[in-house]
Amino acid sequence: MLTKSSTELVRQRNSVLVLSVLRRHGALAHTEISDHTGLSSATISAITADLEKAQIIEKSEQQAASGRGRPRVLLRQRRDCGYLIVVIISSDAVQYSLVDYAGKLIDRFSEERSHDPSGAARFVAGVRAGLSRILDRSRIGQEKVLLISISSKGLVDSAEPVLLWSPIFGSDRIDFESALRPDWQAKVILDNETLLVAAALGAREEIAKGADFRSLAALSLGHSIGLGIVRRGGPTGQVSAPNFGHMLHMANGGLCRCGTRGCIEAYAGFYAILRSAFEVPLDTIPAKFVPVAELDKIAVKARQGHRTSAFAFRQAGLALGNGLSRMLSLTERMPIAITGPGTRYYDLLRQGIEEGLGQSHIVRMEGMPEIRVVADEQILVFDGHLNRALSVIDQDIVVSGIQGAD
User: Please, are residues 295 and 274 in contact by the beta-carbon 8 Å criterion?
Assistant: First the structure.
């Protein structure tokens, strides 16, 4: 019984490996799958036969470039095997995307998020309506949706799709699994947004650098401050999202949106820069949302030499640099990618960030880490969703699909 169980687990693991290779490289011939996976030709034949029988993958023919000879037989995921809905919750909007099993975007729309104090219940009702709307637009049956992947800033439960705390809803917990049942039978997962950014950047780095890639930190600047860390290891790496924005920067310091004092975000978030630029008392209750246009005005004045405006950005950079120096001391020296809408102010933040980092022993000993600005955060969030969600779907579909075909 143990031998049979072990054999089945190996078959499932190898099947997922084949699907991940097809997802990364696109349609491949039989021998190419064997080369990429390191599995024998006989094993690939058995696995692809099972996957095709279960209607998870399909064959297509590609004519030789010369126009002569037999066409190549390629294998790829069946696009209509199932569907994924991606829900990205940001400070001012909720974006819905419908994706097929091959990872192709079918439809997308965004809805502005109201800033009235209506609480989580009304928001959840809006999400349910948005999910129904995206299916109605594409005329796809609800039973074809295999997974709903949701992301937000804030703290998420590591085991369940529960938002524990967020800058939008504060301590109002949202259990998305319970909220969407019984209307939706699809699996529901929830991730911290910056974790997905780090995972997507790590996947890019691993493709570009191969075995030379070790680790990377993604620092997201905006209304909130987020950090994701990715280390090499496993098909999607080891990814974490420490609660960086709410690490202590200054004891008994400025009031943060989380309700405590002295957090990094209370000095580096958009509301903190606004508060500092206008010399508002540090115990003033922070604004939940600050339009980027308001920060742009402060940035213009800072670049023109206005000392208070420039100081607000330098102070924000110093808080970020101090936090990063602590992170590097606890982990290892690694490249830092700065993302988010706050990247437009990097020229004003840079001096403070480097000054804060320079106070770290590891930086003084080993030198300043590589810092790069990556402007396409929204693309990274979506790519992170696809990498994570489609991997989960592959695991589930291999188990249910192949067993159903046996």
Answer: yes
Residue 317 falls inside a structural domain? yes
| 278 and 214 within one domain | yes
Same domain, 93 and 53: no
| Mean model confidence pLDDT for the chain | 90
Least Cα distance to 386 among 187, 147, 158, 169 occurs for 147
Query: Do residues 223 and 194 make contact, with C-beta atoms less than 8 angstroms apart?
Result: no
Better-predicted residue by pLDDT, 115 or 196: 196
pTM of the complete model: 0.89
Specify whether 255 is located in the same domain as 175: no
Burial of 113 (0-12, 13-18, 19+ CB in 10 A): middle
CA dist list (Å): 1 to 4, 5, 340, 402 = 5, 6, 52, 19
Q: Is the pLDDT of residue 118 over 90?
A: no
pLDDT higher than threshold 70 for residue 406? no
Q: Are residues 269 and 319 in the same domain?
A: yes
Give the DSSP letter string of 304-326. TT-HHHHHHHHHHHHHHHHHHHH
Out of 185, 213, 230, a domain closes at 185
pLDDT bin (cut points 50, 70, 90) of residue 315 is very high
Number of domains in the chain: 3
Q: Does residue 223 contact residue 235 with C-beta atoms inside 8 Å? A: no
Whether residue 387 lies inside any domain: the answer is no
Question: pLDDT by residue (tens digit) across 200-217?
Answer: 999 999 888 888 899 999
Helix (H, G, I), strand (E, B) or coil at 263: strand
Tokens of 396: 């589930």
* Residue range of the domain that includes 39: 2-77
pLDDT at 337 over 90: yes
Nearest to 192 by CA among 230, 167, 163, 223: 163
In the block, which residue shows the tokens 């039978």? 185
